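Posting this for the archive.
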Amino acid sequence: MAVSASTVDVTVTVTLWVPLDASGDLTSGVEAVLADGSDIAEPNVYDIDSVTPRATDIQVTAVVGLAVTVAAEGDGATEAREQVADTFGVMSVDRVRLE
């Protein structure tokens, strides 16, 4: 039995680690971390709330819009939160709003 999927647009508040050696600026670093996530596309940083430099990376809390592929019959917000939270470098997903 095939599971159908759909793409939802969400805005998330996320805390993540951006490597110090990431190319570009902080915004593109946040977008690159999220773009590496499974079934996540088109990350677009709307706002950076906090920045904490560390020895090997930068902890960033940002508000980001993105497209996430989820099961068509599931709860889009919950599945989007799980997809973002499972992305390497993401520490927490504080808010998810379906667009």
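The mean pLDDT is 92. Helices lie at 26-35, 76-85.
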